[in-house]
């Protein structure tokens, strides 16, 4: 399989004529040969997107939305095929890959509705025979830079809202998941999206990503990825006064209180910590246990974690797939070494593994006796490594929960409604779960976080359209004479004579 760029409605090779090989992380076999683009391809894509914008912005929004609905329908029809490709390219188990596609389907139909909303507002004005309204405009050419861990869902959060609002898009997917990205773009092509409205440029962040940040025609950048890259991108984009939405790391915790349903908390912890091999921004990497149940719950958890089966995500018997690549295995393992050196106690896992002699697998790993200030309790590992921290009270648990440099998702297990509401009030992350793990956000609510997780924006939900539109305030004076606001009004409390 060969994967090419999609620029101005055509599947094209990179100007460099270079290719790289995209690997299946479970088998280490090639999935595809992929174009390796550089700034010349970005320039061509931006030119196409700029030209297309003039027409696309004038297509009535309900008509733009019909293309989204058609794309949603094609995603429904092709869900299984896309999920299988996604598993082969990214590694997550097939049921999760189906969920990834489903999240894009949900977004297509949810945000398609914006075609008949894109709500602005009117408000009364102070002068007679004058009308005021605030309406939304598209921004222009926008860039969507996306990670490999949700190769369809995350692009869908960005591309669908951008398009329905009338922008044209350059899509730069992660270099680890280009084949899935290309199949996603093919769906828009088949749905009838005009040439140039959505362009795909595949290549490394330092060249393609940078070129997008520096190109003056790209007006906004929606980025999901590491905090390190996001921070640098934000600073450079600021020099161009670009609008930037950042969705970055997490260090999410589950708190389990003495009165919790422990069986439920156990299932939820296994799913949130080891599902997607811990490679979700929302994954649980800290487990804060109330002292009275700590011993018992830890025992239950370790026993179950040891039974999780590693393997190819296409096999129905697999619980946990591989990490994305060799570098990820090295990174996760280095954190395990750090944890040991810091004095945490390794209860299970802690080793890279091969399945049938191949693959970037890592054992589900649990550390006990972790102090909140240890690096394994503070830094994002992005793998199947869970740190157990003890707390004496709910107040202490919440304090520990909040005292990291990330703020994406949190979870509390309790059967006490008072504790639940106290936690909802005091937890300072962008997403809070009660009696559910830290993963599984739905697209109709805002997605994003505080502190090092983001820069104040939220994706999805009612907030999805905010980022991709520009406000325009419109005043229509139909008095036929010069009426000066703030000046030609009557004195306070005096009604103007008609
Ligand atoms: C991510 O890991 O960046 O809430 C996205 C969840 C998924 C999305 C995760 N719906 O876990």
Unreliable segments of 5+ consecutive residues = none
Helix content: 25-40%
Number of strands: 24
Mean pLDDT across all residues, rounded? 97
From the helix content, strand content and strand pairing, which structural class follows?
Answer: alpha/beta
How large is the radius of gyration? Answer: 25 Å
Oligomer: single chain
- Taken as a percent bin, the fraction of beta residues is 15-25%
Task: Compute the number of helices.
Answer: 15
The rounded distance between the terminal residues' Cα atoms is 74 Å
What ions, cofactors and ligands are bound? 2-aminohexanedioic acid
Shape estimate: globular
Largest sheet: number of strands, sense, barrel closure: 7 strands, mixed
- Strands of the widest sheet, in order across it, are 15-18-19-14-13-21-22
Structure description:
By secondary structure, the protein is α/β, with parallel strands linked by helices. Strands 15-18-19-14-13-21-22 form a 7-stranded mixed β-sheet, with helices on both faces. Helix 9 packs across helix 10. It is built from 15 helices and 24 strands. The termini are far apart. The radius of gyration is 25 Å and the shape is globular. The model has no long low-confidence stretch (mean pLDDT 97). The longest helix is centred in the N-terminal third of the chain and has 19 residues. Bound molecules: 2-aminohexanedioic acid. The site of 2-aminohexanedioic acid has 9 residues, from loops.
């Amino acid at each position: 399989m060969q994967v090419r760029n999609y620029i101005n409605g055509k599947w094209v090779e990179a100007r460099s004529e270079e290719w790289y090989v995209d690997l299946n992380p479970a088998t280490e076999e090639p999935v595809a040969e992929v174009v390796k683009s550089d700034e010349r391809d970005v320039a061509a894509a931006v030119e196409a997107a700029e030209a297309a914008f003039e027409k696309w912005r004038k297509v009535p929004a309900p008509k733009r939305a019909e293309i989204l609905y058609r794309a949603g329908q094609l995603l429904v029809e092709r869900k299984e095929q896309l999920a299988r490709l996604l598993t082969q390219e990214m590694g997550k188990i097939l049921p999760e890959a189906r969920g990834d596609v489903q999240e894009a389907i949900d977004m297509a139909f949810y945000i398609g509705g914006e075609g008949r909303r894109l709500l602005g507002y009117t408000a009364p004005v102070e002068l007679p025979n004058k009308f005021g309204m605030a309406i939304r405009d598209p921004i222009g050419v926008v860039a969507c830079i996306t990670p490999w861990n949700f190769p369809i869902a995350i692009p869908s959060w960005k591309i669908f809202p951008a398009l329905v609002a009338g922008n044209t898009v350059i899509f730069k997917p992660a270099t680890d998941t280009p084949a899935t990205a290309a199949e996603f773009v093919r769906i828009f092509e088949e749905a009838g999206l005009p040439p140039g409205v959505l362009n795909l440029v595949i290549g490394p962040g330092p060249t393609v990503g940078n070129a997008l940040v520096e190109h003056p025609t790209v007006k906004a950048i929606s980025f999901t990825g590491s905090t390190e890259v996001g921070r640098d991108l934000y600073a450079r984009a600021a020099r161009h006064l670009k609008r930037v939405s950042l969705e970055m790391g997490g260090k999410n915790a589950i708190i389990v209180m003495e009165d919790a349903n422990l069986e439920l908390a156990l299932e939820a912890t296994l799913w949130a910590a080891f599902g997607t091999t811990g490679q979700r921004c929302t994954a649980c990497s800290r487990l804060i246990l109330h002292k009275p149940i700590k011993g018992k719950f830890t025992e239950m958890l370790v026993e179950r974690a040891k039974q999780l089966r590693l393997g190819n995500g296409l096999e129905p018997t697999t619980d946990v797939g591989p990490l994305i690549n060799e570098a990820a295995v090295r990174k996760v393992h280095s954190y395990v070494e750090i944890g040991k050196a810091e004095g945490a106690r390794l209860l299970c896992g802690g080793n890279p593994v091969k399945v049938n002699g191949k693959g970037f697998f890592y054992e589900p790993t649990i550390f006990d006796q972790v102090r909140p200030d240890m690096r394994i309790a503070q830094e994002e590992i992005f793998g199947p490594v869970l740190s157990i921290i003890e707390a004496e009270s709910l107040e202490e648990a919440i304090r520990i929960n909040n005292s990291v440099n990330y703020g994406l998702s949190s979870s509390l297990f309790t059967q006490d409604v008072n504790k639940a509401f106290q936690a909802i009030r005091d937890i300072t992350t962008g997403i809070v779960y009660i009696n559910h793990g830290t993963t599984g956000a739905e697209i109709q609510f805002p997605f994003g976080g505080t502190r090092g997780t983001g820069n104040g924006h939220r994706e999805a939900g009612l907030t999805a359209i905010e980022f991709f539109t520009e406000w325009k305030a419109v005043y229509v004076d139909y008095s036929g004479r010069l009426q000066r606001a703030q000046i030609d009004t009557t004195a306070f409390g005096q009604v103007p004579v008609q």
